[in-house]
Amino acid sequence: MIAQSTRRFSKLRAVAATATLMGVLAACGSSSTTEQPAGSSGGDGPFKVGVVALDATQITALNERKAAQEKMKSLGWETTEINSDGDPAKAISAMQNLVQSGVNALIVQTYTPDQLAAGLAAAKAANIPVFSTAGGEAGSEQAGAVELVAAAAVNDKVIEAIKDKPKVELLQLRYTPGAPCRSRAEDLDAKLEGLTNVNVTRQEVKIPGGEQSAQEATAAWLQAHPDDGETHFVIWPCFSEAAIGAISAEKQAGRGPYELYTWDISKPAIQAIKEGYATGVLWIQVDKAGEQIVDLIQEWRDSSGSWQTKNVTAPSVLLTKDNIDQTLQENPELNS
User: pTM, whole model, 2 decimals?
Assistant: First the structure.
């Protein structure tokens, strides 16, 4: 009796072991044949893209996102957008939340890779590609970027305008958290070295609230530097909302118009060019940039695992009184 029970127990144990082994082998086989990168085009359901927005009010970033969203919708992709309010810490949190939600790819506006380390780490751990717009060139942990800095196109004009003037007061309206503004300011500072005729005042503006904070900073600068008839005044805002705030301060103080150079076109910026309050405004074609970032993601999807980090540059044109009317005739949507 005992021997029979022992034999039955041995048989049961062998069957259980065999079943366990088969289960393990099946699990291993399943992993090797179905496991895909989280951002791949495999699997059921639509392709999902998470978008980390710079701010809900900054017009250039808003127009870029609108173009990107429209193109992604035309492709049948689903998108989820989170506003970072111009705060890198909120951008990281948004990236982490979007990774947890199961998106297939991420688009992040404006921030540089060094500002997003924790968010990039979360995306990398989940094998989700990150694409950047306006944050400079893509870092090693990013899949691609659309570059919108275009510093030299404006800064070279500024240097040309002031280098031979005997006395210059230059107001820089900066936004250091934003990669385009920071890179533009660094480029200008490098080109100002050795120009002893130029006195530079550097003021930070806020996002949200770029126009208002720029107006306040400009008003204080104008009050501190009366127009003596000999000084050449130049205002350098790193984006157009700050430029409009600076122009408002000029008008309220009854000063100017002084030379003003900036980036990003808008209806108020167009009006400022026509009135002579804006000397040069770089029209970065952000609608094209929005489409370019979607094209990059589509190229990545089609690459079948052979993708190399890629950077592209958004097209741009410097608008002045000399070409604004012709540009508007050829691009009537700028007035809409």
Answer: 0.78
